[in-house]
Amino acid sequence: MVDASVLVATLLSSGADGLWCEEVIGESFLLAPHLAIIETLDVLRRLELRGEVTALEAASAQSELRLLDVELLSIEPFADRIWQLRHNLTCYDAWYVAIAEAFECPLATLDRPLSTAVGPRCEIRTPG
């Protein structure tokens, strides 16, 4: 189970975090909410607009994103759990957590504050 931060870092191969993300993606079956794709595209867009990546790098990452074997899951089976987590997590983060909980798998993220949040009943993995 990976979130958009892991997808972006993998696609851009950005430093030590990018290497960690590539390892995570290489070792597991990938699950994510449908939201992950648009979140990833939006991050790539922002990075390009800020000049942190070139248009070519962003376009290449977007193309590679379509090649990743990620099973995308709809919100319906997870909506109640997402709502339960609303006081401690954004609904976006809660969707990732709810999926990881349902599949009893760890959630890989670069979002270190998420890894210390109260409420999730899944393992949350970050680099280091």
Distance between the termini: 18 Å
**Could you tell me the radius of gyration in angstroms?**
14 Å
CATH level 3 topology: Rossmann fold
- Biggest sheet strand line-up: 1-2
Largest sheet: number of strands, sense, barrel closure: 2 strands, parallel
CATH class: Alpha Beta
Find the CATH superfamily: 5'-nuclease
Structural classification: mainly alpha
In the CATH classification, which architecture applies? 3-Layer(aba) Sandwich
Shape: globular
Strand and helix order: HHEHHEHHEHE
Number of helical elements: 7
Number of domains: 1
Mean pLDDT: 94
What fraction of residues sit in β-strands? 5-15%
Helicity, as a percent range: 55-70%
Compose a concise summary of this entry.
By secondary structure, this protein is mainly α. Helices cover 57% and strands 9% of the residues.
Structure description:
The chain has seven helices and four strands. The mean pLDDT is 94. The two termini are 18 Å apart. The protein is 57% helix and 9% strand. It has a single domain, classed as Rossmann fold. The chain has a two-stranded parallel ribbon. Strands 3-4 form a two-stranded parallel sheet. The protein has helices at residues 4-12, 15-27, 35-49, 55-67, 79-84, 91-103, 112-115, and strands spanning 30-33, 70-73, 107-108, 124-125. With 128 residues, it is mostly helical.
